[in-house]
Every structure is written in structure tokens, then in C-alpha cells.
Amino acid sequence: MEQVKIRRMTLDDIETVVAIEARAYGEHHWSDRSFYNEITNDLAHYFCAVDESGQIIGYSGCWYIFEETHITTLAVAPEHRRKSIGEALLVNIINDCRANKMKYITLEVRVSNTAAIKLYEKYAFTSLGERKNYYQDNNEDALVMWTENIFYDKFSKVFEENIKQLKVKIV
User: Fold this and answer.
1) Is 123 an annotated catalytic residue?
2) CA separation, residue 87 to residues 36, 120, 140, 167 (Å)
3) I want to staple 5 with a disulfide (CB 3.0 to 4.6 A). Which of 50, 55, 82, 159 is the partner?
């Protein structure tokens, strides 16, 4: 089983994260200033996935607002996709939410991003609507997805079962 270390993102990580961001999202990606603003925001929690050699291979970020977490970004370097790294980053966010007593998780995702939608649905996110023309690069719609309370038994059972089947070990 492959291992991935997930740790807090630091200011020193921004250059590498922006390079992954550009490869993942093309010319309409977040800037280094955007990540700097996020990391220095008291509401924000950002993480890096690091392989065994110490290379950053993915990242995620979210905001904690009252009892709700809003996932702002999650990306994996293209050459590391389909290795459960994105899933490990999502699991890390959920575990961090639990540790910080956050009850609900929400996000927006492109309607065309079927891989991401399937991952979120696997973890009991449901779509509660769309934001029309949400993405500025092509006016694509976004699905708005939410979890129910992550401390409820229904969510916990799904989460724990998925953890058992995770194909990468989080260290």
C-alpha cells in the first residue's frame, strides 16, 4: 500500500502548489497571492499531500465558519491522479472537521467533473442545487454539494467503511 503524508500547507509551499494548480486548472487558476491570502486567513485550513520523497503531489483547502466547513479547493498533480491522493485529502479534511467539531461540509464542483462528483458522492455528499455560470473561464455551472451532520450515524458508517477501503495509507 502506498503512503502519503498530509500536513499543513506553509508559505514555503506556495510556489509548488501554484505550479500544480496551473497544471490542474489551466490558465484560470489561483495565483500565489490567492494562496498567500488563504494561508494567512484565520478561517482557512490548507493541507499538502506529500509523497515518500517529500514532493508535494496535491493540496486541499477549506474554511471553517461556525459549524460549517466549505471546501475551497482540492487538486492532485496530473501524474499522481487515480492513486487515491484526492480521496486521502478529502478524508483528511473530514477528520480535521471532526477534530474541530465542524458538523457540515459544503463545496462547489464543476458539473463536468464527474470524477470529483463521484468521490464526493462516495463520501455522502449530495447535490442541493446548481450555481449557474459559476466558473469564470467558461461560464460552466457548479453543483452545490453538502453532507448531512458528519457526526450522525449514517454519515459515520459510510465514512468508516470508505476508510477501510482506502487504497493509500495516510501518515
Assistant:
1) no
2) 24, 9, 24, 9
3) 50
* pTM score of the predicted model: 0.94
Cα–Cα distance, 58 to 42 (Å, whole number): 22
At 98, the pLDDT band (50, 70, 90 cuts) reads very high
Spatial distance between the Cα atoms of 148 and 150, rounded to a whole number of angstroms: 6
> Euclidean distance between the first and final Cα of the chain, in Å?
12
Marked catalytic residue, from 108, 134, 135, 148: 108
Half-sphere exposure of 99 (CA within 13 A, CB side): 7
Residue 26: the pLDDT is 80
Longest CA–CA separation in the chain, Å: 42
Q: What is the pLDDT of residue 29?
A: 79
Exposure letters 8-34 (e unless 16+ CB within 10 A, then b): ebeeebbebbbebbeebeeeebbeeee
Query: Is 108 a catalytic site residue?
Result: yes
Residue labelled with grid coordinates 509523497: 51
Q: Domains in the chain, ordered, with CATH?
A: 2-170 (3.40.630.30)
